[in-house]
Design brief:
By secondary structure, the protein is α+β, with helices and mostly antiparallel strands. The protein has helices at residues 61-86, 101-106, 108-120; strands at 2-3, 8-9, 15-19, 22-28, 36-45, 48-57, 124-125. Helix 1 packs antiparallel against helix 3.
Length: 126
Amino acid sequence: MKITPPFTLTPRSLPGIQVDGVWLSVDYSCEQPSGHTRYVFYIDYNGKEFSTTGTAPNGRGLQKGLETLLNYLGDFEIATRYYNATRTKSEGYGLFPEALGRWSIENGMKIYELECQLIEKVFIEE
């Protein structure tokens, strides 16, 4: 596997990136639904770890998985901002631990920029 900066091999030995002290990693899930690729997303922050799964249409491998994770984090940032303004939990609010809410707001632009980079260029070659 070849990974080009700013993306890297994370402490989990998986492709990902570190954003403001938080490691984001992606791997394939054992379960693969027809026509889609299922991924496992890992987030390591403040000595804690969180994992969840997500799917994307087949293609582009782990890079597409990382793009999907960043997209989910963008949705979480918007939902966190909405919650902070209205105290109403919207659909994206429960995607990640509440402890990552402030981090997602502070790093929302960086997350968006990284997602755009993944869409425009190949950084992870399997």
